[in-house]
Write a structure and sequence with these properties.
single chain, five-stranded antiparallel beta sheet, 3 helices, alpha+beta, two-stranded antiparallel sheet, globular, HIT family, subunit A, 7 strands
Length: about 140
């Protein structure tokens, strides 16, 4: 789909490795060496704001966001999870689920803030397949 004169980035590609998807949304894993487990839950339709969704759709979306948070906490044992929803550039509601550690590059700043430490700290190594399996189990349990 086009937005003005541009092709919508989230319509033309998945946005990362797809871990799970439905007709309404998808969960992707962001390839970020500093934040393994960083995921996004992306609403498939062009909807800018949460309140543009029907209440039942909001419930579905947030159930998936919470399931992803559960999975990231289980598999990566971060000190904190950051949840953020922007969509300033693309008209797709999408939630960022970002594992944070007290010694990560940006802590306590947001991951888009100034780098406070250099280097990559060892974090749990979890495959996309493992994340997909655990996410499927958590979503099935929370239906």
């Amino acid at each position: 789909m086009e937005i003005g004169s541009q092709i919508c980035e989230l319509c033309s590609n998945p946005g990362g490795v797809v871990l799970w998807q439905s007709a309404q949304c998808r969960v992707i894993r962001v390839d970020d060496p500093f934040y393994p487990g960083f995921c996004r839950v992306i609403w498939n339709e062009h909807v800018r704001e949460m309140t543009d969704l029907e209440p039942a759709e909001r419930d579905v979306l947030m159930r998936i966001v919470y399931a992803v948070e559960i999975v990231v906490r289980q598999l990566f044992s971060p000190d904190k999870i950051n949840l953020a929803s922007f969509g300033n550039v693309v008209p797709h509601i999408h939630w960022h689920i970002i594992p944070r550690w007290g010694d990560d590059r940006h802590f306590p700043e947001p991951v888009w803030g100034a780098v406070r430490r250099d280097g990559v700290t060892q974090r749990p190594v979890v495959s996309n397949e493992e994340m997909t399996r655990v996410l499927g189990r958590v979503l099935a349990k929370n239906e």
